[in-house]
Design goal:
The chain has one domain. It has 2 helices and 11 strands; from the N terminus they run ββαββββββαβββ. The protein is mainly beta. The strands form 3 sheets. Strands 1, 2, 3, 4, 7, 8 and 11 form a 7-stranded antiparallel β-sheet that branches. A two-stranded antiparallel ribbon has the order 5-6. 14% of the residues lie in helices and 44% in strands.
Length: 124
């Protein structure tokens, strides 16, 4: 299934085709434990897969902020939709275009060089 992978540690944004398997998610996100949360990004809802232990890492990097600049998510992210029954499915080209427009280079105190980060991320 097609997803968008935001890797904040390598500062990359990549469209990938991924098998819907836990091991594939771990490998893509470079983590050992994943969690899926629903967030409104821009004006659309997405299922966002993330490292469930991201805040515990010494080198944690902010990956999503809300409209006021507050931290919403940390670590690498992948974006999906779900069918209401817990099954994830991939993104359309329109979804990818929408998300890409909401990802901007942002600057933090710890990373004044800037890196790609999701903006306009709100609780759904």
């Amino acid at each position: 299934m097609k997803t968008l992978l935001l890797n904040v540690y390598e500062d990359t944004l990549t469209v990938i085709d991924i098998e819907p398997e836990l091991e594939a998610y771990y490998k893509a996100l470079d983590c050992d434990c994943v969690d899926v949360v629903v967030r409104k990004i821009g004006r659309r809802k997405f299922d966002v897969m993330r490292d469930d232990e991201g805040l515990l890492k010494a080198n944690a990097k902010i990956s999503a902020i809300d409209n006021l600049g507050r931290t919403m998510l940390v670590g690498n992210l992948m974006f999906f939709h779900h069918d209401g029954l817990g099954n994830l499915f991939g993104l359309s080209h329109d979804d990818i275009d929408h998300l890409t427009k909401c990802i901007q280079v942002m600057y933090t105190k710890n990373h004044p060089e800037g890196y790609k980060m999701v903006t306009q991320c709100e609780y759904a």
